[in-house]
Amino acid sequence: MPAISSNKPYRIGRSPTGLGLFATQPIKKGTRIIRYFGPLLDCDKEADDAIENKYLFQLSNRWTIDGSVRANVARYINHSCRPNAESDVKPRKRKVFIRAIKNIAPGDEINYDYGTDYFKEYLKPIGCKCVGCEKKRKKKRAEARAERQRLKIKAEKKALRQAEKLAKDRAKQARKARDKAGEARKQAGRKKLNGAHLNGHGSHKIHAVKSDISVRARGAQGRAR
Fold first, then answer.
1. Nearest to 13 by CA among 78, 86, 96, 79
2. What's the pLDDT tens digit per position in 137-175?
3. How far apart are CA 24 and CA 17, in angstroms?
4. Are strands 18-23 and 10-15 parallel, antiparallel or unpaired?
5. Tell me: the pLDDT tens digits for 111-126?
6. For 192-216, what is the mean pLDDT?
7. Cross-strand partners of 104
8. pTM, whole model, 2 decimals?
9. DSSP assigned state of 214
10. Which of 102, 93, 52, 95 has its CA nearest to residue 74?
11. Which of 16, 85, 139, 186 has its CA 20 to 30 A from that of 22?
12. Each residue's pLDDT tens digit, 59-78
């Protein structure tokens, strides 16, 4: 690991994506933090596969900086979709500086946006791991968990309502069945009563009662006294 002078406002340290560059002193917005340097590659002469690495920094259509050399401490600066620094490119001077675009506090990781081409080729396939994207993913995961919990509670409430409705329907059907059975018993009782005792055509007998009253016939010449 390259040595860094104690008067430099940064240090190499561990970050969520591996090694990174961290501020050791307050860095004001607009300050040039470090230079990104390395051998210059002539893209018109070099074969594409001969210069392929993830530390290439394109200055122009022709010139590219190969920042893979260990002395280039700026290569430890990681990408961020919400950076606190930016690349200040000087194509004519063939130089690149990393400049603060926000006030950076001691302990903060220094980062800048690597650009669309690098993002699509190297970061998008594996997923960007910058703080901003991690927060987005964490938020989405939390929202997904909350949505799954909401749907689960909704399904449980729906199942409970259906069970209650089913229980009420069964109870209602049971009451109807009992009422129907009771009405049938009443109807049967009324039919028996009407048929056996009220219409006069039952099997009961009429008994004659002996009387103590005697009747004597009066003759044509009977005496009346």
1. 78
2. 888 889 999 999 999 999 999 999 999 999 999 999 999
3. 19
4. antiparallel
5. 999 988 888 888 888 8
6. 57
7. 27
8. 0.62
9. -
10. 95
11. 139
12. 988 899 999 999 999 999 99
Task: Identify residue 149 by its one-letter amino acid code.
Answer: Q
User: Is residue 64 within 8 Å of 96, Cβ to Cβ?
Assistant: no
Residues listed for the chain: 225
Strands 78-79 and 109-112: parallel
Cβ atoms 167, 173 nearer than 8 A: no
Which three-class secondary structure state does DSSP give residue 212?
coil
Q: DSSP class of residue 126?
A: T
Question: What is d(CA 87, CA 146) in angstroms, rounded to the nearest whole number?
Answer: 40
Please report the sign of the dihedral spanned by the C-alpha atoms of residue 55, residue 4, residue 33, residue 129. positive
Q: Which helix (H) or strand (E) holds 170?
A: helix 131-193
Strands 63-66 and 40-42: antiparallel
Query: Domain limits of the chain?
Result: 10-126, 130-196
Residue 140 dihedral angles phi and psi, to the nearest 5° = -65, -40
CATH of 10-126, one of 2.60.40.10, 2.40.50.320, 2.170.270.10, 1.10.10.10: 2.170.270.10
Compute the distance between CA of residue 148 and CA of residue 122 in angstroms, rounded to an integer: 32
Asked whether 20 and 10 are in contact (CB, 8 A), the reply is: no
**Token pair belonging to 54:** 């993830």
**Cβ pair 68, 40 in contact under 8 A:** no
What is the maximal distance between C-alpha atoms in the chain?
A: 177
Which tokens sit at 25?
A: 């002193």
- Burial (Cβ within 10 Å: 0-12, 13-18, ≥19) of residue 145: exposed
